[in-house]
Amino acid sequence: MGARCAPLFLLFFGTLLVLPHLSRGATRYYTFNVTLTNVTRLCNTRAIPTVNGKFPGPKIVTREGDRVVVKVVNNVKDNVTIHWHGVRQLRTGWSDGPAYVTQCPIRTGQSYVYNFTITGQRGTLFWHAHVSWMRATLYGPIVILPKRGVPYPFPKPYKEVPIIFGEWFNADPEAIVAQALQTGAGPNVSDAFTINGLPGPLYNCSSEDTFKLKVQPGKWYLLRLINAALNDELFFSIANHTLTVVDVDAAYVKPFDTDIVLITPGQTTNVLLRAKPDEGCPAATHLMLARPYATAAPGTFDNTTVAAVLEYAPPGHIKSLPLFRPSLPALNDTAFAANYSAKLRSLASPDYPANVPRRVDRSFFFTVGLGTTPCPANQTCQGPNGTKFSASMNNVSFDMPTTALLQAHYNNIPGVYTTDFPVVPLEPFNYTGTPPNNTNVSNGTKVVVLTYNTSVEVVMQDTSIQGAESHPLHLHGFDFFVVGQGVGNYDPSKDPAKFNLADPVQRNTVGVPAGGWVAIRFFADNPGVWFMHCHLEVHTSWGLKMAWVVNDGPLPDQKLMPPPSDLPKC
Ligand code: C2O
User: Cα(474) to centroid of ligand 1, in Å?
Assistant: First the structure.
């Protein structure tokens, strides 16, 4: 074909088939039937809520630009909602999922159709239940492939494998959180961590329940790591294999090599793994291990280790071969955490620019941390000094409303929330020094209201109240850029000069360093009501959460869509 024919050829086939920016996305339909299913782990059988009888739940596979439609049917006695964690939900806040924030829960016997489009994201996210602790068993991967015809900005993997971390409880997690909230004490910890639902051979009565990844020598694998655990950040490593991080929270990063990945609840990380070539492949079994990075007091978290197996094909000789174990950092290795997060940079290439807000319209300073609530009269409490554990941002412990905030916003229903969430702490103190004598929190259903397209900076400062602790903060409805982080108290006169506005990592969940601070920026370009909370479920239960109300913009495509007709009622 001559050169002159090329434009016509492209025009004809391109618009129909290949030109990615012209192709309309497909629609992917799923039905999620939430039922009780008997699952046995650690020789303990429980009837757990699952989606379609699967644990972990089914994988959603989609492409950037596709529409995803999921009908969720609730056939368990508990309330259910599903959150599509990290999906931007542009103008479709009704499909975001957090109970009493964007919707009322789906009651027993009822259903609700979530309907949203994947825009400008590629990588891995996950879905999980978003009411009480139901996400302990209701979770699964969301795989977002690039648009058809668009390559990855890294070598094409031979195979792609989701690796989803979870926590297994021998008791009912709903009973555990109910008891903790009643007594004021910390909740019982999990009995095991899991990889793809399996605890692996390091736990009693569990060696049959081991995830095995079979690889072929010399081939590249893309592992889609997801931390769906309730309450624990995790270190992950594979014996004798270096991993290349290429994507976090469905945004590409500048690739870097590491032997150990740190992943908080709510974060995802895509890593390339190169299986060793035949010559270099020792006849051995390589363990993949994950165990917590935890800054809380020993005894207050599950400190066990989940193992899976990396197996070279052909298999069949696992038991007799030498077993290689990776080494992992100490449970409280905060220096590792700081180093690791400093390595994460946006790809920031011409094809994938980093649209970092350079100026800031509104800046916020939020303390995040624990606190206490006085014990009610006629009760004894088992929290610190006979109080109840609580948690807050800017000393406001968030009270969940009984009407969904988004409905209240859309329909102008008064009395559901107030708009006076503090922009800065009302009573400043030495946040990382000796805690104040009075550690009681205040309560309220307080939000911040933002004008459409405001550029926002939030500095989140950990406090030492009840112990400095790392808090993985998750923002719904947006990705943000992590422009700075540091130890100790944030210094507004010195620290902003060090901010990275060129290629900061873009994500939806960031660890507020134990005894330190982190600064994030985003454009409030998504109208709706957006939850922000610690993704350690225990802290969310204690009130470490707040919400942003983003008003409609002036143009038609800057407005929240009307609610779907099947939106559950409270
Ligand atoms: Cu993954 Cu509001 O949560």
Answer: 6
144 CA to centre of own chain: 15
Over residues 167-176, the mean pLDDT reads 98
CATH number of the domain encompassing residue 128? 2.60.40.420
**Cα–Cα distance, 97 to 211 (Å, whole number):** 30
Q: Which residues of 261-291 are buried (b: 16+ CB within 10 A; e: fewer)?
A: bbbbbbbbbbbbbbbbeeeeeeebbbbbbbb
Residues 505 and 411 in one domain: yes
Binding site membership of 130 for ligand 1 (Cβ less than 6 Å) = yes
Residue 180 has pLDDT above 60, yes or no: yes
pLDDT band at 313 (very low <50, low <70, confident <90, very high): confident
How far, in Å, from the CA of 283 to the mean position of ligand 1?
A: 42
Query: How many Cα atoms sit within 13 Å of 537 on the Cβ side?
Result: 30
Q: Does residue 265's CB lie within 6 angstroms of at least one atom of ligand 1? A: no
Whether 539 lines ligand 1, by a CB cut-off of 6 Å, is no
Do 132 and 210 share a structural domain? no
pLDDT at 17: 47
Structural domain includes residue 569: no
Residue in 129, 125, 127, 126 with CA at minimum distance from that of residue 103? 129
CA 99 to centroid of ligand 1, rounded, Å: 10
* Predicted structure pTM score: 0.95
Of all protein residues, the one whose alpha carbon is nearest to atom 1 of ligand 1 is 85
- Residue of 375, 417, 392 lying closest to 542 (CA atoms): 392
Q: Indicate which atom in ligand 1 lies nearest the CA of residue 98.
A: 2
Domain total for the chain? 3
- 3-state SS string over 355-384? CCCCCCCEEEEEEEEEEEECCCCCCCCCCH
Whether 369 is in the pocket of ligand 1, judged by its Cβ within 6 Å, is no
CB of 135 sitting under 6 A from ligand 1:
no
Q: Is 476 in the pocket of ligand 1 (CB under 6 A)?
A: yes
Residue 410 has φ and ψ, to the nearest 5°, of -65, -40
CA of 496 to the centre of ligand 1 (A): 29
Distance CA 392, CA 442 (A): 8
